[in-house]
């Protein structure tokens, strides 16, 4: 029963399809004048918070320890990253370390293909532990996020829906759907048979500079990826 509470291929795929369908409906409501366009401002703001939490927090901090930050930001990134229905820090670090180690091989944890738009799946071999994962598993809070991530997402949606259906739709479901979509695009086109590549046209979807994928594979422990990178600007404000 407990596996149902974790973020996994089945519930994250369900969340992806359901949230994107709901988001189409949300844009329809705004286009037809049934809801104010100001609700889309909330969608954009929350979407950017998710972008920063995953790119700066789960990716650059938790996975690569490219910089140090206060405990407040550590938990902020962990909570937002998990509530985005993307992954808990432990799961993200596990999958991403596998990706770097086995990039563009049969063991690569990242799927290259358009099926990622429908099925959010990572191929992560069992038993692959790194120092970062061992360190995280010593924190009861991080283990809690790993075990109950999906349950926390459903509870968050339920509470927001009880407070305001519009807030649940535009402030939670739609931002998650947009992040699912941008992640699917990135997952699909950031690698070819020749390896990782930089795609500047992705900047409008990934303003945190995740589009500089080849650069990141060459310099995985750098927190500043150069060029236009909102993530690095934010890191300058919080790093210690």
Question: What structural keywords apply?
Answer:
2 strands; single chain; 61% helix; 240 residues; mainly alpha; two-stranded antiparallel sheet
In short:
With 240 residues, this protein is an all-alpha fold. Helices cover 61% and strands 2% of the residues. The protein has one domain (9-179).
Structural account:
The protein has 240 residues and is mainly α. It has one domain. It is built from nine helices and two strands. It has helices spanning 9-31, 38-63, 71-83, 89-101, 131-137, 140-163, 165-189, 213-218, 230-238, and strands at 191-192, 195-196. A two-stranded antiparallel sheet has the order 1-2. β1 and β2 (195-196) form a beta hairpin. The chain is globular. The model has no long low-confidence stretch (mean pLDDT 83).
Lay out the secondary structure:
Layout: H1 9-31, H2 38-63, H3 71-83, H4 89-101, H5 131-137, H6 140-163, H7 165-189, E1 191-192, E2 195-196, H8 213-218, H9 230-238
Antiparallel strand pairs: 1-2
Helix pairs in contact: 1-7, 2-3, 2-4, 2-7, 3-6, 4-5, 6-7
Total number of β-strand segments?
2
- Outline the low-pLDDT stretches: none
Proportion of strand residues:
under 5%
Q: In sequence order, what are the helices and strands, one letter per element? A: HHHHHHHEEHH
Largest pleated sheet: 2 strands, antiparallel
* Distance between the first and last residues' Cα: 41 Å
Structural class: mainly alpha
Number of domains: 1
User: What is the share of helical residues?
Assistant: 55-70%
Give the overall pLDDT as a whole number. 83
- Placed side by side, the strands forming the largest sheet appear as 1-2
Number of helices: 9
Radius of gyration equals 17 Å
